[in-house]
Amino acid sequence: MYFLSRLFFYFKKNIFSQKANFSIIFSLIIILFLTVTSFLIYILDWYYKKTSMDHANNSAVLAGASKMVSNFNRLGYNFSNHAKRLLIDDVKKFIRNHVKENLIQSSKAFYREEIQNIVNNSNVMIAQQKNDLKNYSSLQNNIFSVSNNKIFYHLDVTTSYDYRLQLIENIFHHRYSHKILSFVPAMLTIDTGEPPNFLIELVLDFSASMLCGMDSDLETEDSDSVCQKNKNSKITALKNAVLQLLDAINYSNAQQQVYIGLIGYTTRVEKNIKPSWGTEKIRQYVSKDMDALSTGSTDSTPAMETAYRIVTADKKRSFWVNLFREKVTIPSLDFQKFIILLTDGENNKQKNDVDTIKICDKAKKNSVKIITISLNASPQGKIFLKKCGSSSEYHYDVKNNASLLRVFQDIFRVIVHNKYQVRVKG
């Protein structure tokens, strides 16, 4: 008994001593700090995964809408219900593949097997809206009108991920998870009536590498020596292809419906021909003055930002944006809007690729169709341009002069026949 009483005495003495109090408080603070930090890391990681899924779904639904319109243009609008189901199934598969590719390329938030599980458990819904659009129209301030010349489709993409709380599982030895849900709905409107007016911005690479030949490999060769000696340059091939596009517009009697501008860039905007009706201003510049610069790196961000501000000039902007930026005006018409970006590879800095893709995403959310063309680009350059384009079908990989000419013929057909809008709800 004496031994126990002495033990209790010393225990109480040590516990309530000043040094012991400090040690206990310090330990509790460390434990609390580590716990809060762990939960903060979980919250940030959860948010990163959710944002990655939302971005992948958003990009996929926009690309799926472009794919759907492309299929309609190729096959027409009058076919059997069975054929329509096959077309829709093809688009659903395309959207799932696009979600997978986007998560792999754009996000480090998931392992490969996790991405595959997300795709396998995803749900893609495509349904035609036949009659009543009142509910949706009221939500969107009557953006969409019902008429005999319009076809409406709902596109919904849903993905989920079981987020496991490892810290809690380790403490309580029990499985704890929280489901991350990403739901992106959109409305596709296809206009089958009279051809609309077109707003087109050509965004062209004028950097030094455009003086090189179409078959030059800038990753393995000295670009300066190749570019100085080669007469069959990329910029010359580009001139011919652009002039052919302008000819096609004129021959189709569409010049009165085309409002077109041109931006040439290196690391900055070198040339900005503001849009105008018809092709004459662009033709004069391309045939007489357009050329690449003998020096200059590549950064497409300023040029794409300028193009985005031009094609969305009819959108309302805040007072501060209008105060500090040059005001751009375009006619108040229902334009079908296109940005055509052509370059021979990725930007010199990866950050510029990321910044450009952010602008591309903003443009696509505002119903701007983006067509990208790579001239003998590196694998990384092709990935960059595919991400920027409205869909994989809106990206062209060019290897020689003949294929570049064919690409601009295809682009003309895409511009003339694609009359649609896609709006992401919410």
Written overview of the protein:
The structure is a single chain. The chain is of the alpha/beta class. It has two domains: 37-191, no CATH class; 197-419, Rossmann fold (3-Layer(aba) Sandwich). 50% of the residues lie in helices and 21% in strands. It has 14 helices and ten strands. It has helices spanning 2-15, 18-75, 81-106, 112-120, 134-139, 166-172, 223-229, 234-251, 280-288, 301-311, 319-324, 350-365, 379-388, 401-417, and strands at 123-129, 150-164, 177-191, 197-205, 258-265, 269-277, 335-343, 368-375, 395-398, 420-424. The strands form two sheets. The protein has a six-stranded mixed sheet with strand order 6-5-4-7-8-9, sandwiched between helices. The chain has a four-stranded antiparallel sheet with strand order 1-2-3-10, with helices on one face. Helix 3 runs antiparallel to helix 4, helix 8 (234-251) packs parallel to helix 14 (401-417) and helix 10 (301-311) packs parallel to helix 12 (350-365). The longest helix is centred in the first third of the chain and has 58 residues, at 18-75. The protein is globular and about 105 Å long. It starts with a helix and ends with a strand. Mean pLDDT is 78; it is low at 132-147 and 222-226. The chain crosses the membrane at residues 20-44. This is von Willebrand factor type A. It holds the Pfam family VWA.
TL;DR of this structure?
This protein has 426 residues and is an alpha/beta fold. 50% of the residues lie in helices and 21% in strands. It has a 6-stranded mixed sheet with strand order 6-5-4-7-8-9, with helices on both faces. A 4-stranded antiparallel sheet has the order 1-2-3-10, with helices on one face.
